[in-house]
Specification:
alpha/beta; Rossmann fold; 2 domains; disordered C terminus
């Protein structure tokens, strides 16, 4: 079972600003791309679907449920009565929901085995079981090999490395056995046939590699990186998956390559990009990369292969903050990356990821960011700014060594570890309320800049009842529910 999203109550003004911004954002993207893109709001976990495919290879009967999908969610009580084991993926802010589901499963069928995994569990395996008495096991990291082994030896989990479990006195212990490496290229394709809806109703993410070789302080992706030999998929696997999706999705569906840095190893990526171009898929592609990894010949090759949406990790517009968080890129790199992409094609969209509240942030930098965000939109430096509040997730240095970087954690209520709510921490010179106020100022500046951009382009932003079926999950989980 996947629990990918959670509802957050936003203050009325924030919800209104966010709704207007997201509506305008999509129109700006379509104006830039010169076509209407299809990107449904419903997500699924490709990681869980890959685990499901491995379980099926080992002879297990498997069902997949997405807790965020009301259709799937209604099936939980009946399927819980049938299941011998339930595996649930847990993010930090979804821990409360996961705990509630575990309790409900045990009420329905007390002898059902519950196994938890996911980023939050990987960072806190013992604590997860202590805080969730209904769960039986917590598994860290990649579970494709170890979960089938655990399910075949439920009464003797010690030989299954990376597994937390309870002993007779009720205390939680961690297996001392080694954790075998997962070679990603040896894994099957995700079990797409387990999805309850047609593939056209989901937002799709494809990966060529797991994890990230970089060490940014705000991110836990580095925990999944092993080596190129273990973490990269083969080109044949990726092409097979794209062929499968292309045959089942409408034209101009946007498929996102969710590698932390898609072109981190261009020597390997170039061959895949050439083959994608030759295949002439009816899809559009987006990718994540770093500003200091944008090279003109690579961008041209990507554009020729159908990559139209470049998402760049700016994080901050201040070099001192970038250095402090371990980001090697600079403000000059950001501008250079934008110039290169614009030079290659004026139908290529640029999305800048930003984080508000990095260590070292000041009142002045918050205000300057609000001003500069508007300038970036007005000057066509970027088309979209995806701004979020920094969250010190367990497993990241900003949680595990918070005091060393000037962060004071204020609460361990995991439901508050959300990227659009008031921060769960304070900085040396800024309270959580001051960080949040700066974030709201930036959101307002961004919404106004978007509206000005649409007016300059002669595009009408539309009304409140406009169909937003192609807007990503942010609108569905933060705006629609808040407005209703």
């Amino acid at each position: 079972m996947d629990v990918p999203t959670y509802h957050v109550e936003l203050p009325g003004l924030h919800g209104e600003i966010l709704a207007r911004r997201l509506r305008a954002q999509n129109m700006i993207l379509e104006h830039r791309l010169r076509s209407r893109i299809t990107r449904p709001a419903m997500h699924y976990s490709r990681g869980l679907l890959t685990i499901a495919a491995c379980l099926q290879q080992h002879g297990f009967a498997v069902k997949y449920l997405n807790h965020a999908d009301v259709v799937d969610r209604k099936q939980i009580p009946s399927l819980a009565k049938e299941a011998d084991a339930v595996g649930i993926s847990c993010l930090t802010p979804t821990f409360g929901i996961v705990k509630h589901v575990c309790d409900a499963v045990k009420v329905s069928k007390p002898d059902t085995v519950i196994v938890l995994g996911g980023p939050h569990v990987t960072a806190r395996p013992r604590e997860t079981l202590e805080e969730c008495p209904s769960a039986d096991f917590a598994m860290i990291g990649e579970c494709e090999i170890r979960l089938p082994a655990l399910l075949r030896s439920i009464d003797n989990p010690e030989p299954v490395g990376g597994t937390a479990y309870r002993v007779k006195d009720g205390s939680v212990v961690m297996s001392s056995a080694p954790v075998p490496p997962v070679v990603v290229r040896q894994l099957p394709l995700p079990a797409y046939h387990l999805l309850s809806r047609p593939l056209s109703e989901y937002a799709h993410n494809v990966r060529t590699a797991r994890g990230c070789r970089y060490g940014c302080g705000f991110c836990t992706e580095r925990l999944s990186w092993r080596s190129p030999e273990e973490s990269r998929r083969g080109s044949e696997q990726v092409l097979e998956e794209l062929e499968f999706l292309s045959a089942r999705l409408p034209q101009n569906t946007l498929v996102h390559f969710s590698d932390a840095v898609f072109n981190a190893d261009w020597g390997n990526t170039a061959e895949l990009v050439d083959r994608i171009e030759a295949a002439r898929f009816s899809l559009l592609f987006s990718l994540d990369t770093r500003a200091d990894r944008v090279v003109e010949n690579e961008v041209r090759a990507l554009a020729n292969a159908g990559f139209k949406y470049f998402r760049l990790g700016f994080e901050s517009l201040h070099d001192d903050l970038l250095r402090a968080c371990g980001k090697a890129a600079t403000r000059r790199d950001q501008q250079s990356a934008s110039d290169i992409i614009r030079r290659v094609g004026d139908d290529l969209a640029i999305h800048a990821y930003m984080l508000t509240g990095l260590p070292g942030t000041t009142h002045e930098s918050l205000v300057l960011d609000a001003i500069e965000i508007g300038r970036m939109i007005a000057s066509d430096t970027v088309d979209v700014v995806g701004n979020k509040i920094l969250v010190p997730y367990p497993g990241s240095p900003y949680y595990d060594a918070a005091s060393e970087v000037g962060i004071s954690i204020l609460t361990h209520d995991w439901s508050k570890y959300d990227r659009r709510s008031c921060p769960v921490y304070r900085l040396k010179n800024l309270s959580s309320d001051e960080i949040y106020s700066g974030y709201l100022l930036q959101e307002l500046a961004l919404a106004l800049a978007y509206l000005d951009k649409l007016e300059a382009c002669g595009v009408h932003p539309g009304g409140a009842n406009e169909n937003h079926g192609h807007v990503d999950y942010v609108y569905a989980n933060y705006v629609r529910e808040t407005d209703s």
